[in-house]
Amino acid sequence: MATDDAMPARPMPRFPDGFLWGVSTSAHQIEGAAGLRGPSVWDAFTAEPGRVKDGSTADVACDHYHRYREDVALLADLGVDAYRFSVSWPRVDSRGGLDFYDRLVDEVCAAGVRPVPTLFHWDLPAGLDWLERDTAARFAEYVSVVAGRLGDRVGKWITLNEPAEHTLLGHALGVHAPGRKLLFDALPAAHHQLLAHGLAVRALRAAGATDVGIANSHGPTWPASGDPADREAAEFYDLLLNRMFADPVLTGRYPEGVGELMPGSPGEVAADLEIIGEPLDWYGVNYYAPTRVGAPQGAEIEFGGVTLPAELPFSVREIEGRPLTDFGWPVVPEGLTELLTGFRDRYGDRLPPVVITENGCSYEGLDDRDRIAYLDGHVRALHRAMEAGVDVRGYFVWSLLDNFEWAEGYARRFGLVHVDFTTLERTPKASYGWFRDLVRHGR
Ligand code: BGC
User: Fold this and answer.
1) How many CB atoms lie within 10 A of CB 83?
2) CA-based nearest residue to 218, from 250, 252, 241
3) What percent of the chain has pLDDT over 70?
4) Cα-flanking dihedrals φ and ψ of residue 11, to 5°?
5) Does residue 358's CB lie within 6 angstroms of at least one atom of ligand 1?
6) What residue numbers bound the domain in which 108 lies?
7) What's the rounded Cα separation, in Å, for the pair 123 and 324?
8) How many domains is the chain partitioned into structurally?
9) Which positions ≥6 away from 259 have C-beta within 8 Å?
10) Residue 4 within any structural domain of the chain
């Protein structure tokens, strides 16, 4: 239960001029299927009974497709510098093509906000498959089409959202689309997404883009104890979540032992890594919480809404003594400082300027003081990382609107703006007012 003590009273430290304040959304979570949109793997997955906890679909979601003007007005009123949204590949592939995004980008620019599109946020067109290498080439073709149409108004681009989560949840554990339970046989999906990222960077460069990044999910991994078996399991988890996706992008190499597991001969993987390691202008980090990891315990584990099978070489443990969000995720702001300073130490000059492309939490209610406390703590933690010398250029809250939270349906509310999913009415929450003040004062 939040109390008045949870309300931040201390003055917020100053952020440098030009620091980018923003909010994030994704196409499948807010748009709805209206207009000419082809099917995606998420439509097929959602249609299978039992896949989405509340049995809902994203057919309407926030109906952003029809209400985007109202949503852009909310952005304008919020006063953010930038809006991160995603382009739906299945929509672009349909007869409607890029018309919707043309209108959206015009509206966002007219509101004085910078559009920051993500080119893939998990809604793969039905019929395509990340286990197939060719999907990477198809992605690059689609990216060229998007850049050709929007590049006159869009400066800042994001190739992929969280290939780690998409591999883990969608291909290894089967709790997200496309619903495969391949465990470690899912690794080709990771490699092909990373290749798609590299090819997309090249396609964007060919279209003249000079401000290109990726949004990778990362978090510190804490060993459950000093015991060598726990430490080893935690290192392995760090490799899976952090290093397997950051190393190739930032250094052009997989961590030791990982390249051999990827599809293709050693020569082919090495050639792909040249592409994957294309230099970026900035590196996007999505941060929610650290993970405490120990040796396997020989039993299934419930973690953040997901059942982890017993045969994994690690087990996820509770982080004790912390408030939990409605999703059950621990609130650990200093994890963000640790993550960023750790990345700086690990990657040194290879780490370009960082942008926090997602950070947020799920809580019910309009008077969402818990969310304010969460965001306040994380913005301060970010500032501490900057004081410690990490070059951070922006911070995007996940999310502007309550939305379709994947396998959780509409049960988790991450928005600064409440959406009534019956009437589709939007109501700014207390956190919206808090963030508006922060953005104003931040400047
Ligand atoms: C994803 C979002 C998601 C959020 C909260 C991130 O992993 O990029 O799509 O809604 O986390 O779960």
Assistant:
1) 27
2) 241
3) 98
4) -65, 145
5) yes
6) 20-442
7) 29
8) 1
9) 253, 266, 269, 270, 273
10) no
Does any ligand 1 atom lie closer than 6 A to the CB of residue 376? no
- Length of the chain in residues, anyone? 443
Q: What is the pLDDT of residues 373-409, one digit of tens each?
A: 999 999 999 999 999 999 999 999 999 999 999 999 9
* Percent residues over pLDDT 90 in the chain: 94
Tokens in use for 362?
């799920």
- How remote is the CA of residue 302 from the centroid of ligand 1, in Å? 18
- Ligand 1 pocket test, pick from 406, 412, 416 with the greatest ligand atom count within 8 Å of Cβ, gives 406
CB burial of residue 419 (10 Å; 0-12, 13-18, 19+): buried
Residue 304 belongs to a domain with what CATH number?
3.20.20.80
> Is the CB of residue 246 less than 8 Å from the CB of residue 351?
no
- DSSP-H helix ranges across 89-133: 89-92, 99-110
Q: Is the peptide bond before 399 cis (omega within 30 degrees of 0)?
A: yes
For residue range 106-138, list pLDDT tens digits in order: 999 999 999 999 999 999 999 999 999 999 999
- What are the residue numbers of the active site? 162, 358
Residue 3 clears pLDDT 80, i.e. is over it:
no
Ligand 1 touching residue 359 (CB < 6 A): no
The closest-lying atom of ligand 1 relative to the alpha carbon of residue 217 is 7
Six token digits for residue 245: 């996706």
Structural domain includes residue 12: no
CB of 162 closer than 6 A to ligand 1? yes
Q: Could you report the per-residue pLDDT of 180-229, keeping only the tens digit for each?
A: 999 999 999 999 999 999 999 999 999 999 999 999 999 999 999 999 99
In a domain, 2, yes or no: no
The model's pTM: 0.97
Decide if 3 is inside a domain: no
Query: Whose CA is closest to atom 5 on ligand 1?
Result: 405
